[in-house]
Design brief:
Elements (H helix, E strand, L loop, with lengths): L1 H13 L13 H14 L5 E3 L1 H13 L3 H11 L8 H11 L6 E12 L6 H11 L2 E5 L4 H15 L19 E11 L11 E6 L5 E18 L10 E7 L5 E7 L6 H4 L5 H10 L1 E10 L1 E8 L1 H6 L30 E9 L24 E3 L4 E7 L5 E7 L15
Parallel strand pairs: 2-3, 4-11, 9-12
Antiparallel strand pairs: 1-14, 2-4, 5-6, 6-7, 6-9, 7-8, 8-13, 10-11, 13-14
Bound molecules: 2-acetamido-2-deoxy-beta-D-glucopyranose (2 copies).
The site of one 2-acetamido-2-deoxy-beta-D-glucopyranose (NAG) has 7 residues, from helix 5.
InterPro entries: Serpin_CS, Serpin_dom, Serpin_fam, Serpin_sf, Serpin_sf_1, Serpin_sf_2
Keywords: Glycoprotein, Protease inhibitor, Secreted, Serine protease inhibitor, Signal
Pfam families: Serpin (PF00079)
């Protein structure tokens, strides 16, 4: 019934006759709650995950879910205020918004299903249309072969950036469905850093220890603001810097506590509403930026986290995923065994060539006239689509790319 209900909606969508107003991703609340869960588990480690990836992966499950399996997902993701099925149109729009030439997003969504289980044709069809998702059948009892196959598939779809997404012990003969979600992003800064301005610099971790890292530098016009939650919880004022990627659809927001304040004391105040507040209140102005090069990568089994956020039913024998299977298929006892996500992000100067727009370095100044964002200690970041509000990545850098100290010391 849900599947039928969807069709008219899609026909409307299909005309593509006008540039629609931005659909607004409604899942920020869920994303932030998820971050806090990961933070509890994450100790002192870097974190990176893709809220949008999780949203879409859950959307794929939701499409095949019924009853409380369906309701829990709607509730947790914040779709309760949407009309029934409206979220699929939304997700389809969010997926489409990623296909822009100025940056590279490799979003891999795939369902691998057990050979022999007959799946509903409409379900498979909608998976393709709404999520551009591939559905493939495999024999999970051949766990080594399956993991090799899935890993090769993911590599092929992420420009070889994401390896070893799954391992053989992720499966057993009881596995009937595996949901795979991987996201790789590479954008060029609108204002690129000049590689010749990158220096060795020390980065002070939250525990007070220091590591050497490659610190990029530039000054230029950026969106910037100083915020305070009005209490001393976050250690008073913290900085928010928004750096646009080429094309200006995407940006990275960096949230940096004061030097002497650990990120751990800023993290608890992060709320969905605050993300919006930051985005709406940063102002374009001249800023001086010191940002380490970093690469963060994380593989997560999201099952426990999702359960903590109220999505439980789909992982149990009570799961109702009946809309996935053909009507003739009886009592499949389908449930989700695992949800694995791997996210990967590289932040670099991005392009020595064509960096003409950024020739503003002026080390001869003696006074610091502009606000300075010195990310030489842990910070929080998000990469979001400024048009749709969807969050591609959320995470934190506790340790940047560590290098062996150079002999020469540069004074900045
Ligand atoms: C998705 O986009 C279409 C047209 O581009 C628009 O009509 C529709 O309202 C959007 N859906 C949502 C939920 O925003
Ligand atoms: C990935 O690409 C390689 C080389 O093109 C190909 O041999 C392999 O079959 C592909 N793997 C999958 C799972 O598509």
């Amino acid at each position: 019934m849900l599947l039928l209900g969807l069709l008219p909606l899609m026909l409307l969508r299909g005309c593509g006759c006008q540039a629609a107003d931005a659909p607004l991703d409604v899942t920020a609340e869920f994303s932030v709650r998820m971050y806090h869960q990961l933070q509890i588990l994450g100790g002192e480690e870097n974190i990176i995950f893709s809220p949008l990836g999780v949203e879409l992966a859950l959307g794929m499950v939701e499409l095949g879910a019924r009853g409380s399996s369906l309701e829990e997902i709607r509730q947790a993701l914040g779709y309760s205020n949407l009309r029934q099925d409206e979220e699929f149109s939304l997700m389809s729009n969010l997926t489409r918004a990623l296909s822009v030439d100025t940056y590279v997003v490799r979003l891999v969504n795939s369902l691998f299903l057990q050979t022999g289980v007959r799946f509903n044709k409409d379900f498979l069809q909608l998976m393709k249309i709404l999520f551009r998702a591939e559905v493939e059948t495999v024999d999970f009892s051949e766990s080594a072969a399956v993991s090799e196959h899935i890993n090769s598939w993911v590599e092929n779809h992420t420009e070889s950036k994401i390896h070893n997404l799954v391992s053989a012990d992720d499966f057993s003969s009881a596995t009937k469905i595996m949901l795979v979600n991987a996201m790789y992003f590479r954008g060029s800064w609108k204002n690129q850093f000049r590689p010749e301005n990158t220096r060795t610099f020390s980065f002070t971790k939250d525990d007070g220890s220091e590591v050497q890292t490659l610190m990029m530098y530039q000054q230029g016009e950026f969106y910037y603001g100083e915020f305070s939650d009005g209490t001393t919880e976050a250690g008073g004022v913290y900085q928010v810097l928004e750096m646009l990627y080429e094309g200006e659809d995407m940006s990275m927001m960096i949230v940096l506590p004061r030097q002497e304040v650990p990120l751990a004391s800023l993290e608890p105040i992060i709320k969905a509403q605050l993300l919006e507040e930051w985005a709406n209140n940063v102002k374009r102005q001249k800023v001086e930026i010191y940002l380490p090069r970093f690469k963060v990568e994380q593989k997560m089994d999201l099952k426990e986290t999702l359960q903590q956020l109220g999505i439980k039913n789909i992982f149990t024998k009570d799961a109702d995923l009946s809309a996935m299977t053909a009507e003739t298929e009886d009592g499949q006892n389908l449930f989700i065994g695992k949800v694995v996500q791997k996210a990967c992000l590289e932040v670099t100067e991005e392009g020595a060539e064509g960096a003409a727009g950024s020739g503003m370095i002026a080390l001869t100044r003696t006074l610091v006239l502009y606000p300075q964002v010195m990310a030489d200690h842990p910070f929080f970041f998000i990469i979001r689509n400024r048009k749709t509000g969807s969050i591609l990545f959320m995470g934190r850098v506790m340790t940047p790319e560590v290098i062996e100290p150079f002999d020469d010391n540069f004074d900045m």
